Model the fold of this input.
Amino acid sequence: MPRYTHVHSGDKKDLRGAKKLFETPEALRAAAMDYIDWAIANPLIEEKHFCSQGQIITAEMAKPRAMSIVGLCLHMGISRCSWQVYRKAEEFDLVCEEIEDRMKQFKFENAVAGLMNPQMIMRDLEMVDKQELKHSSDGTMLPSRIELIAGKE
Done:
């Protein structure tokens, strides 16, 4: 049985100066994969109403859950500060990077497929629309170039 708490219990532990909850990268990966599996298996449910042949029909539609470091920490019962302790530890840095990359890739793929709000995911993934403006002779500003720039890693 895992030693971490279940989703959104609020029982977070701060690891500054304390013994780590996850002693090995493998234990941290297993806990993170449990969160990822949970998020995929428990999509958000949106209720939609349709009108067909004069009848109002209600349907439930599954929407993917946007995974986050905050959600991961809540699921594992640790603070974000504790996550950063793991993130900075040489022994755990690669597994933390892998976990973050898995969540980012999931969100990116779902946003591209139209299953998540692309603008929100773009901001979350630190991708921005950059727009340069030129001043015209009449004082108005016109876009000269628009490009998509990936955020810092």
User: Anything to note?
Assistant: The first helix runs from residue 25 to 41. Residues 1-10 have pLDDT under 50 and may be disordered.
